[in-house]
Amino acid sequence: MAERNTSYFRAVLGSIPPYRPGRKVVGPDGRSAKLSSNESPFGPLPSVREAVAEAAAELNRYPDPAATALTAALARRFGVPEEHVALGAGSVGILQQILEAAAEPGVEVVYAWRSFEAYPLLVGLSGATPVQVPLREEVHDLDALAAAVTDRTRLLFVCNPNNPTGTAVRETELTAFLDAVPDHVLVILDEAYREYVRDPHVPDGVRLYRDRPNVAVLRTFSKAYGLAALRVGFLVGHPHVAEAVRKTMVPFAVNHLAQAAAVASLDAEQELLERVEATVKERERVRGALVADGWTVPETEANFVWLRLGEDTLDFAAACENAGVAVRPFAGEGARVSIGSPEDNDAFLAAARAHPKRR
Ligand code: PMP
Fold first, then answer.
1. Into which CATH architecture does domain 48-267 fall?
2. Cβ(163) to ligand 1 under 6 A?
3. Options 3.40.50.1820, 3.90.1150.10, 3.40.50.740, 2.40.40.20; which CATH number does 21-44+268-354 get?
4. How many angstroms is it from 158 CA to the middle of ligand 1?
5. What is the number of the ligand 1 atom nearest to the C-alpha of 95?
6. Is residue 39 in contact with ligand 1, taking CB distance under 6 Å?
7. Residues ≥6 apart with Cβ < 8 Å to 176
8. pLDDT given at position 359
9. What ipTM does this complex have?
């Protein structure tokens, strides 16, 4: 094909890798365990399916742009005023909205690294400068993050628990850090995996943001609530932050089916949290088995485990794929493996056991 002129695109696009969709892997016994995207292994509850089916009768209408019922349900659930809640198409959509509101060339956005892959991608697209602060022993280095703040910093992301390491920062350190960050920086506590936290010292950001106008919390229906396909995320923050996020939302970003499913999921929260408990039990079983087999696995508060495999990462991921288990490799660093059904987890453990390079 002839070369196309791409001069009409912003130069920053040249540094963004093209999107490559994940492949479905199938093992010799027909097994296909998808442990690569930190999804819930549970399908939707009957009550959530019913709500979606009912909402489908109105597909000819635009959704409620203000997501009134969902906003009210979230405000009730978290004990906050409705003006403190903003929605987006997944929490990744909200990240983009926050960047749209705050980022531009010359602005710095600080976050730990390695962390959620979307941070460098979205910050790069915004034209702002990403400032990546290395993890220390797989954990956020809060002192170094605070030290990375300059007059040009406007946003700082703290992913707690951190994707892909699963590690979480505790209340004493986190509150001291939040109090040290200057007012001209908005801190986003990305708590996509909050429901899986069992360490009582890891704080709920919704409690921490209240006395701190420059702190907001990001949550999602994609993980514990099992609605990854529908794309619903939300922010809890002070009205000036929530308003900026509402202003930068693509109109109708949270569709009608997604709103209905999210409301029904909040109604069925107890049932969903029992499923989360089952995943947490599986997480402890998987991590325990890996450690017993000689692997070094950081303690994880999320629905995945992290194996620092270094140069062996891609080889390990390929061996898992050959056994019908898709994991998420980060070349030269390590592999993140989601906690799935007990059978899928067993298939992963068998593949890991068969791999010669235990760490
Ligand atoms: N934050 C973190 C830390 C994540 O790991 C993810 C999903 N992988 C998200 C946000 C985005 O999730 P979603 O857009 O599905 O809400």
1. 3-Layer(aba) Sandwich (3.40)
2. yes
3. 3.90.1150.10
4. 13
5. 10
6. no
7. 142
8. 58
9. 0.99
| Spacing, Cα 231 to ligand 1 middle (Å) | 10
Q: Ligand 1 pocket, 96 CB below 6 A?
A: no
Ligand 1, closest atom to CA 232?
16
pLDDT in tens, 55-69: 999 999 999 999 999
Strand locations in the chain, DSSP E? 33-34, 85-88, 108-113, 129-134, 153-159, 186-190, 215-220, 233-236, 304-307, 325-326, 328-330, 334-338
pLDDT for residue 305 is more than 80: yes
Q: Which residues touch 167 (CB under 8 Å, ≥6 apart)?
A: 135, 138, 139, 140, 161, 298, 299, 300, 301
Cα–Cα distance, 25 to 340 (Å, whole number)? 15
The residue to mutate among 95, 197, 220, having the most atoms of ligand 1 within 8 angstroms of its beta carbon, is: 220
- With a 6 A CB cut-off, is 340 part of the ligand 1 pocket? no
pTM given for the model: 0.97
Question: With 90 as the cut, is the pLDDT of residue 28 above it?
Answer: no
